[in-house]
C-alpha cells in the first residue's frame, strides 16, 4: 500500500504544477519502480521523480543506493520514448500511403490520447489502432501490401505487424456483435467518426473530434475493466483528457455518457482521479461531480484494489476453449458486470452466446 501512495504522489507531481512531500529513498525504490512498470506509467512517474528532484536541487549522485533504480527507470523511460517514436514514424508512413490512395482514416486509442499529454512520448504505447468508416477493406489491402504477417481472426478488427509494431484495423468500435446494449453506441461512434472526416478532402490518418474521443475512451476503459482489469494508465489518461479538452462542452459529454450507460463508470474513474491523482474539480463536468458524490466508498476501494490485482488470466485467442475459460472468469468478477452494466453475469454471457447476427446490425 505504501508503494502505491508513493507512486500516486509521483503521478500527481508529473501531471500538475504542484509539488508533494516525498522521501526520494522510498520513492526511487525497486518496489515503486516495478509497480510503475506493471501499471504502464513508468515514463510519467519518472517525469514526476525528475520534476521533484529539479525543484529541490537534488542530483542523481545524491541518491545513494537508489541511483541504481534511477538508472533502470531512466532506461525504461528511454525505451518508452523509442517506442513512441517508432509508432509515430509508422503513423506518418501509413498516412502517406493512405493519402496516395485517397483513403481517410482515424487514429484510435494511444496516439489520439497522447496528444493531451504535455510530453506525448512519455506515455506507454502498445500498438497502432486505426479506423476508416468507409474504407475498411481498402485499408486491409494496404496493410497486406506492407506486411507479411496479416490475419483476420477476430470480427472486430484485422491485424498485422509492420516494422515491429502491431497495427489493428478496426471494423467495429465496440463489442457490438456480442452485446446488443452497445448497438446504439456503435452507431453513434461510427457517425461521429464519419463527421470527424467529413470536412477533410485529402486522404491520410487523422484524429477524431473530442465527442468521439471521450465517449470511445470511456467505453474502451470499461471494456478493459470487464474483460481484464484497468491499470493506472487509464486513470492518468482520463486526468489529462479532462484537463486538456477544449471543444467538448460539459452538457454534451454528460448527455452522451448518460445515454449510453457510461456515466457511473466514468464517475468512478473520475473519483479516483480526484482522490488519488489530484485532479482539480474545476476540470470535471458538473454531472460527473454529482454522480461521484453518490458513489459509496466501498465501491471506490474495490475498484482501486482491482487495478492492482496480479492474477487475472489473459486470453489471446477467440477459440472455443478460451471463450469457455473467459466465461468462467466472468463469474469471479460478477460484481463488475452487476455494478456497471446493471445485469447479471448469466444474462451478460447469454447475450454473448446468442450474439446479434451481422445482417441485423445494418453495419458495414
Strand content: 5-15%
3D shape:
globular
Low-confidence runs:
356-362
Our count of helices gives 18
The end-to-end distance, rounded to whole angstroms, is: 48 Å
Nearest-integer average pLDDT: 87
* Structure summary, number of beta strands: 6
Q: In order across it, which strands form the biggest sheet? A: 3-4-5-2-1-6
Helix content: 55-70%
Give the ordered list of helices and strands.
HHHHHEHEHEEEHEHHHHHHHHHH
Radius of gyration using CA atoms only = 21 Å
Major sheet attributes: 6 strands, mixed
Describe this structure in words.
The protein has 364 residues and is α/β, with parallel strands linked by helices. 60% of the residues lie in helices and 8% in strands. The protein contains 18 helices and six strands. Strands 3-4-5-2-1-6 form a six-stranded mixed β-sheet, sandwiched between helices. A hairpin with a 2-residue loop joins strand 3 and strand 4. Helix 8 runs antiparallel to helix 9 and helix 10 packs across helix 12. It starts with a helix and ends with a helix.
Amino acid at each position: 500500500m505504501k508503494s502505491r501512495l508513493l507512486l500516486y504522489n509521483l503521478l500527481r507531481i508529473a501531471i500538475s504544477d504542484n509539488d508533494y512531500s516525498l522521501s526520494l529513498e522510498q520513492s526511487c525504490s525497486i518496489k515503486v519502480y516495478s509497480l510503475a512498470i506493471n501499471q504502464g506509467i513508468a515514463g510519467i512517474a519518472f517525469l514526476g521523480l525528475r520534476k521533484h528532484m529539479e525543484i529541490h536541487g537534488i542530483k542523481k549522485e545524491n541518491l545513494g543506493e537508489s541511483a541504481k533504480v534511477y538508472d533502470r527507470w531512466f532506461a525504461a523511460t528511454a525505451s518508452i520514448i523509442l517506442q513512441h517514436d517508432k509508432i509515430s514514424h509508422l503513423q506518418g508512413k501509413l498516412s502517406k500511403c493512405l493519402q496516395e490512395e485517397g483513403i481517410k482514416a482515424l487514429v484510435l486509442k494511444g496516439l489520439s490520447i497522447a496528444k493531451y499529454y504535455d510530453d506525448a512520448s512519455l506515455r506507454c504505447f502498445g500498438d497502432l489502432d486505426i479506423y476508416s468508416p468507409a474504407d475498411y477493406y481498402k485499408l486491409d489491402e494496404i496493410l497486406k501490401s506492407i506486411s507479411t504477417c496479416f490475419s483476420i481472426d477476430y470480427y472486430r478488427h484485422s491485424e498485422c505487424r509492420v516494422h515491429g509494431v502491431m497495427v489493428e484495423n478496426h471494423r467495429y468500435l465496440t463489442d457490438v456483435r456480442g452485446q446488443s446494449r452497445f448497438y446504439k453506441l456503435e452507431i453513434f461512434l461510427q457517425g461521429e467518426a464519419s463527421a470527424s472526416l467529413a470536412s477533410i478532402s485529402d486522404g491520410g490518418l487523422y484524429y477524431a473530434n473530442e465527442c468521439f474521443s471521450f465517449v470511445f475512451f470511456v467505453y474502451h476503459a470499461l471494456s478493459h475493466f470487464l474483460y481484464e482489469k484497468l491499470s493506472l494508465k487509464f486513470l492518468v489518461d482520463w486526468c489529462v483528457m479532462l484537463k486538456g479538452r477544449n471543444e467538448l462542452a460539459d452538457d454534451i459529454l454528460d448527455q452522451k455518457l448518460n445515454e449510453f450507460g457510461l456515466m457511473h463508470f466514468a464517475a468512478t474513474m473520475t473519483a479516483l482521479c480526484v482522490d488519488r491523482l489530484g485532479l482539480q474539480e474545476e476540470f470535471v463536468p458538473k454531472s460527473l461531480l454529482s454522480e461521484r458524490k453518490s458513489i459509496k466508498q466501498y465501491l471506490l476501494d474495490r475498484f482501486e484494489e482491482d487495478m492492482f490485482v496480479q492474477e487475472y488470466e489473459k486470453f489471446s485467442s477467440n477459440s472455443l476453449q478460451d471463450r469457455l475459460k473467459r466465461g468462467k472468469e466472468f463469474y469471479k468478477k460478477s460484481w463488475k458486470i452487476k455494478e456497471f452494466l446493471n445485469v447479471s453475469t448469466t444474462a451478460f454471457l447469454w447475450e454473448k452466446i446468442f450474439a446479434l447476427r451481422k445482417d441485423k446490425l445494418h453495419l458495414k
